Amino acid sequence: MAFFRGEEGSVSFDNGTGSVGAIASTTAWTLDTTKDTLETTSHGATSRSFVGSLISGSGTVDLLYTATSGDDTAEIISDVLTTEDAGDATFNLFLDTSGTKKLSFNAIITGTSFSSTVGDISTVSVSFITNGAITSAI
Question: What is the pTM (predicted TM-score) of this model?
Answer without folding.
Answer: 0.85
